[in-house]
Amino acid sequence: MTPGKAFLSTNEIRPLAERSDVMGFWLVVHCWGTIALAVTLFGIWPNPLTFLLAVLVIGSRQLGLAILMHEAAHNALFKSRKLNDVVGEWLCGRPILAELLAYRHYHLTHHRFTQTDRDPDLVLSSKFPTTRASLKRKFIRDLTGQTGYKQLAAQIMMSIRLAGDDEAIVAASSDFAQAFKARDLFKSLPAFLGIIVLMAMIGDWWWGLAFWLLPYLTWFQFVLRIRNIAEHGATEASENPLQNTRTTLAGPIARLFVAPYWVNYHLEHHLVMHVPCWRLKEMHNVLTRKGVTARMRVAPSYRHAMAEAGWETPGS
Predict the structure, then answer these.
(1) Contacts 24+ apart (CB under 8 A), 265-270
(2) What three-state secondary structure class fits 65?
(3) Please, are residues 230 and 264 in contact by the beta-carbon 8 Å criterion?
(4) Are residues 93 and 100 in contact, defined by beta-carbon separation less than 8 angstroms?
(5) Known Pfam families for this protein (predicted)?
(6) For 135, how many CA atoms within 13 A lie in the half-sphere containing its CB?
(7) 76 φ, ψ to 5°?
(8) Cβ neighbours around 159 below 10 Å, total
(9) Is the peptide bond before 129 cis (omega within 30 degrees of 0)?
(10) Is residue 69 part of a domain?
């Protein structure tokens, strides 16, 4: 049963769940367009500020591509399964070394068993709350590229070790799906490297390394961790859909750098997982009018969500 049916009628869910091919294509174009705009801005005004801005924006849009692949995994990006599979795989997943099919299988299991012993994401959320020192170490590793390098090296080693052994690759795929990683790196690597080469052709030889590899190894890893913590970290380990997941309210700055494409409305997504991301805010408003949000775990900002996970005392 869809958890949201306990709080929303079928007549309320139906229009929220309506998908749009036009909106799906617009989101993909918007994501890639934002990446192009960030690089163009540096090309016109090359300086340390526009360089840093490009790295942060592109890293957040790499998360945006992961979110749009997540939409396609739920068949919510487009009306047809084929469009979801093709666009979600090749324009969203492969460019960030992710794989739609492996992710879909793992992620639907997460929805079915959220915050229970059978949840494959429990390993990510069960660590919280933790200490400020522990979070600081994690954030430093992310921002300095240590996390990204370690995960990329692990992907390469697994792909080499399991080359040609499809059953072993499938068996090992869950750990990589958790972090939006392809189970067979070498199938996604051409798309990833192709973007690096294209950026080098458009600008200087180092542009692809600076504006695709560097964001991928640093800011993308950081905002991916922030997202994981905010969604299920330090939430209730139960089957209560209003408390085992968190929605985090986000202003324009947070949406630009940390939470693109309504990813912050995660509790709403868990209530009705086939509602397209661009309708989640509307769904939140419907729940608010019905008085449901008063019982939901909602953080007023990402700072508060991190505070609940152990970063600081809210309001300090």
Answers:
(1) 266/230, 266/231, 267/241, 267/242, 267/296, 267/297, 267/298, 268/4, 270/3, 270/111, 270/114, 270/241, 270/245
(2) helix
(3) yes
(4) yes
(5) FA_desaturase
(6) 22
(7) -110, -5
(8) 19
(9) yes
(10) yes
- 146-195: pLDDT as tens digits: 999 998 888 788 777 765 555 444 444 444 445 566 666 778 899 999 99
Q: For 103-125, what is each residue's pLDDT tens digit?
A: 888 888 888 888 888 888 888 78
In a domain, 194, yes or no: yes
Four-residue CA torsion sign, 59, 176, 100, 305: negative
Angle CA 162–166–169, to nearest 5: 55
Name the nearest CA neighbour of 94 among 74, 79, 110, 72.
72
Number of domain units in the chain = 1
Per the structure block, which two tokens stand in for 38? 């960030």
Quick check: is 231 in a domain? yes
Q: 3-state DSSP call for residue 1?
A: coil
State yes or no: pLDDT of 250 exceeds 90: yes
Name the H helices within 172-241: 173-177, 185-202, 207-208, 214-217, 219-232
Parent domain of 178: 3-128+154-309
Distance CA 181, CA 55 (A): 20
Q: Is the dihedral of CA 278, 279, 283, 289 positive or negative?
A: positive
Task: Measure the CA–CA gap between 20 and 137, rounded to whole angstroms.
Answer: 42
DSSP tag of 298? E
DSSP structural state of residue 73: H
Flag whether 134 is in a domain: no
Check pLDDT > 90 for residue 260.
yes
Three-state DSSP class for residue 169: helix
